[in-house]
Amino acid sequence: MLNYQAEKELVRAFYEEFDAADPDQLSDVLSGYTSEDYRWRGYYPFDKLTNAEEVAKEFWQPLREALQPVQRRMDIFMAGSNSLKSDAPDNDDIWVVSMGHLLGLFDKAWLGIAPTRKMVMLRYCEFHRVSQGKITETAMYFDIPHLMAQAGLNPFPDQTAAQLVQPGPMTHTGLMFDEQDPEEGRKTLAAIDYMVGELKSWRGSDQSEPLVEELRRSWNEDMLWWGPTGIGATYTIERYAEQHAGPFRTGVKDRTFNGHVCRMAEGEFGAFFGWPNMYIKPDGLMGYPKSDKSGELCVIDVYRRSGDKLSENWIFIDLLKFWKQQGIDVLAEKLNSSQASG
Known about the structure:
Helices cover about 30% and strands about 35% of the residues. It is α+β, with helices and mostly antiparallel strands and about 350 residues long. The chain has a 6-stranded mixed sheet with strand order 2-1-6-5-4-3. It has a 6-stranded mixed sheet with strand order 8-7-15-14-11-10, with helices on one face. Strands 9-12-13 form a 3-stranded antiparallel sheet. The protein is globular and about 55 Å long.
C-alpha cells in the first residue's frame, strides 16, 4: 500500500532549498526538482507556463524580489493518489498539496501594485504531481485580490462575507508530514464526493428544499468557509447560506460543470482543483452587471472533515480571470484609479 512519504520528502526538500535561494537562483533550483516536460498552472495574469525557467522568470523571481525576506507559512501539507485516475499505470498520479501563506515585507512593486513597506501575506495553495522522483506539474492558485486589499486597494464591490487574513485548521492538525491512517483518508474522500454530488444536483431557483437543510447533509453546523477576497469568509451553516451560497446561486444564471483535474484526501483533509471547474454566466454576481457571456471558474477547494461531515473549507477562485473574461479588468482598473487619485 502506498504511503506517499517519498513524495512528501521530495516536496519538503524542494521547499527548503527553494525558499532559501536568492531570486537569481530560483530557476536552477526549480529545474533540479522538476521534469523536462514540467507544466505549471497559475492564476491570472500568469495562466499556463511550460518549463521551470519560464515559471521562475515570470512568476517566482518578480514575487520574491517584491516580498523580502519570504516565509512559507504552511497550514496544510498532505499527499495522496488522484481518486479520479485510479487506472493510472503503477498508480502514477500522486499529488502533494501545500496550503498556507507566503509572508514578506512588501518593499517593491509587484504586478503594478505599489509597495507598502509593511508585512503582507499572500494566500496560496499548490498541487504538485510527483512521478519518478520529479515534480512533473504544479497547479498554484493564489489570492492576488487578498494582497491588493492588504495594500489598500479594494478590488471588488462590497463583499457579502468577512475580509481577513485566514488561519489554518481549528485543530492544528493539517501538517501531515508523517504517514496517515488510510481509512481516515477514505472517509474524507467519501464526504467530499458526497458534497460534490449535492452541488451537481443543485437546480437553481426552482429548489424547493430550504438551502440550509440541503447544506446540513454535507456540513457540520459550526462549519467555517474561508472564501477568497471578493466573497470573504463565513461561519455556521446559516451564515454560509446567507453570506455566500445563497448570493452565489441567485447571482449565477447558467452553470456547467467541467470536472476536476485531481481530487484526493489524506487523514481528515482533502482537496481538489479544476482547470476550469465550471463555466457560469453571472446574473448580478458580486455586485457586477448581468451578462450573457459564459466565463471560466478555476477553483481549488481544501477541506477538513470532522466525523462524517465537512467542517472547514478553504477556497481559491481566479476571480480576476473570470471578470476579465466578462470585460472587466479588475487589476488594471484598480491600479489606474489608484494612480489617478495619488
